[in-house]
Design goal:
Structural class: mainly alpha
Oligomer: single chain
Strand content: under 5%
Number of helices: 9
Helix content: over 70%
Largest sheet: none
Distance between the termini: 31 Å
Length: 226
């Protein structure tokens, strides 16, 4: 039976779905983080419970960061330290993301000032000089800290298995997870011993004791992964 090629709308829907799944986690994370920072700042500094302008600014920044993560993750250089000690990819990715976001934020500010001043001229220079660079830098320091937390979670999730970190936090008991890891290790060691001591034909034959044991080990691993 031949596979019929999918139509253009189906392919476009698939691309949009994958893009949304990729961009949604960082966007939601930074949306919560930035609004929490903005909320606590308004409480401590301005004595406000809620300011619409702060909410809009935090949300727009979260959208910008989510878009940057989506684009940067497609660049091969982002995985330069893949496979090394975790501290290397965590710091490298956090700095890389932060620098790209810094450039995007700066370009957006410059474009905004240029539009307000009607071009790059004296009015633009005055607007740029009066800009609150202290606030800009402070916001970006928090962006870097948030990236450290985000990248650490992503790297740990990739290390323990895609989606396993979510299951550990919201589904499994920590004691059960430790037991499951020990069972995985014992099963893999037994598989290694079977492979070393049993000929291939005998190991793959379900009628032999070794073949039945191999099938039982694979079944148990499959149940634990579910």
């Amino acid at each position: 039976m031949s596979n019929t090629p999918r139509s253009l709308p189906h392919r476009a829907l698939g691309v949009a779905s994958r893009t949304l799944r990729h961009a949604l986690p960082p966007t939601l994370y930074f949306f919560v983080a930035f609004n929490l920072i903005s909320f606590t700042t308004d409480l401590l500094v301005h004595n406000y419970w809620f300011r619409p302008s702060s909410f809009v600014l935090a949300t727009v920044t979260a959208l910008v960061v989510g878009k940057v993560v989506l684009v940067v993750d497609r660049v091969r250089v982002i995985d330069k330290f893949r496979g090394g000690p975790l501290i290397r990819p965590i710091l490298y990715k956090s700095v890389f993301y932060s620098v790209v976001v810094l450039l995007v934020r700066f370009i957006e500010k410059v474009a905004h000032f240029a539009i307000e001043a009607g071009g790059v001229g004296p009015a633009f220079q005055d607007t740029l000089r009066d800009f609150s660079w202290h606030r800009f830098v402070a916001v970006h320091l928090w962006i870097f800290v948030c990236f450290l937390v985000y990248v650490t979670a992503v790297e740990f999730n990739a290390l323990v298995g895609q989606g396993q970190l979510f299951r550990l936090f919201f589904h499994h008991r920590s004691s059960e997870y430790g037991l499951t890891r020990q069972q995985h290790i014992r099963s893999l060691m037994e598989l290694s011993r079977l492979a070393e001591s049993t000929p291939r034909e005998q190991l793959l034959d379900p009628a032999t004791p070794q073949g039945r044991r191999l099938a039982a080990i694979f079944d148990s691993l499959h149940r634990r992964a579910a």
